[in-house]
Design goal:
By secondary structure, the chain is an all-beta fold. It has one helix and 27 strands. The strands form six sheets. It has an eight-stranded mixed beta sheet, with no helix packed on it. A five-stranded mixed beta sheet has the order 14-11-19-16-17, with no helix packed on it.
């Protein structure tokens, strides 16, 4: 642990507040292409076009006026087809849902016509924006292996009525693999990774409603992720890697197995590709195995923060020091590399059990520990950060200059 008591705990920050009367669709007295929806500053129903409001201590912010007006919406219609051959078996339990790329957006469920083959679907009152359309069919005992899943997904931009979509579903498949823990031999034939929770989250990540196969590592270190629908995914290893857009995923889940203390995710390979820092396209016909390697030789970082006082540099006490992945694309995913602590009376700080990699460090005069999970805040001081690389087993020392609150 570092000097703030715990540098391995999950840190989350939720700044979203919606009034109850604007957080869901109203339909009474509206046309088929109208809806009351959440409005974001500066007066847009599209959360991707929302702008942040910087509220600083002691400041009065005025002129933030929002107009809760009726929004123009659109419909999405199409058919669900058999992506292998022939017609879809009648009487299946099908679901089609439109999920927003922005987690603050609304999701929409389709009305499905089972009397046609292929199945017809329609989604009404969709707010303009970027979405993924997910379709899933669960087979019954009469139509195939009971509980077997078929599915498909596709990106969809909604700027007008969308007609005549054809989305072909295919059988889901399984992803097999194993977890290797370096330097931690099995005990009595049981892997130290036994019980570790794994999941595949769609990429790009959206709402938690997106289909996300999950499993636990078996005693022999192997795992099987079933119900994979062909498409793009990122692998999450809890609690080392998890999506910051959905911190609630950790609630109710056990901590890492005792044998994984002081370890980190070193690599995640699907076939010959390492996908630790990126997504992977999973295709049933390739049937590639996954191998997750956990390293046990973490790095460490000590440092000191100074501030300027009367023309002299003096130790900065009680300053929040944050560490995030240097690559912006890794932030929000490589949560094992998000760390924060406070400086002591001598202005010093330390991080232990660091995953090897490239970091960017910040020393903020006015910020709290959860700031490292607020990617919007990080962007405001991006150019004030200090880059540092940590190798396996390496311990570095670095000096930082405090970032004054007034210039963030």
């Amino acid at each position: 642990t570092n000097n703030d008591g715990d540098d391995s705990a999950a840190m989350v920050l939720n700044r979203r507040v919606l009034r109850d009367d604007l957080s869901h669709l109203f339909v009474k007295g509206l046309a088929d292409n109208e809806a009351h929806v959440p409005i974001y500053y500066p007066n847009t129903p599209n959360p991707q076009q929302a702008q942040a409001i910087d509220v600083r201590p002691g400041y009065d912010i005025k002129g933030i006026n929002l107009v809760a007006d009726v929004a123009r919406t659109f419909r999405v219609r199409g058919v669900i087809t058999n992506g292998v051959a022939g017609e879809l078996p009648a009487g299946n339990n099908a679901m089609a849902v439109l999920l927003p790329l922005d987690s603050a957006g609304n999701s929409y469920s389709a009305v499905i016509d089972y009397g046609s083959n292929p199945f017809k679907f329609e989604i009404k009152r969709v707010v303009p924006g970027s979405y993924f359309l997910y379709v899933q069919i669960k087979l019954s005992a009469k139509t195939g292996p009971e509980g077997a899943l078929w599915g498909a997904s596709m990106p969809l931009e909604v700027t007008q009525d969308v007609e005549n979509i054809s989305i072909p579903v295919k059988p889901s498949f399984s992803l097999h693999g194993n977890v290797i823990v370096e330097g931690r031999p099995d005990s009595g034939g049981v892997s130290s990774a036994a019980g570790l929770f794994l999941a595949m989250r769609p990429d790009p990540f959206m709402t938690p409603q997106a289909p996300s196969p999950s499993t636990r590592v078996l005693p022999d270190g192997t795992f099987n992720l079933s119900g994979i629908i062909q498409g793009g995914y990122r692998a999450y290893v809890f609690p080392f890697l998890f999506p910051t857009t959905n911190p609630g995923l950790l609630w109710g889940l056990p901590s890492a197995p005792a044998g994984l203390q002081d370890t980190y995710v070193k690599s995640i390979r699907v076939g010959s590709a390492d996908i630790l820092g990126t997504a992977v396209q999973l295709i049933a016909s390739e049937n590639l195995p996954m191998e997750i390697v956990l390293g046990s030789n973490p790095g460490a970082l000590d440092g000191r923060v100074v501030r300027t006082e009367d023309g002299k540099q003096v130790p900065a006490f009680g300053i929040t020091v944050g560490a995030v992945p240097d690559a912006p694309a890794a932030r929000g995913f490589r949560t094992d590399m998000h760390r924060s602590t406070l400086t002591d009376g001598a202005g010093t700080f330390q991080f232990r059990n660091l995953s090897p990699g490239d970091y960017r460090l910040f020393a903020w005069e006015a910020a709290d520990k959860d700031t490292v999970m607020d990617l919007d805040f990080i962007r405001t001081s991006e150019d004030k950060g200090t880059r540092v690389h940590i190798d396996e087993g390496e311990k570095k020392t670095i000096d930082l200059t405090m970032i004054p609150e007034r210039i963030r």
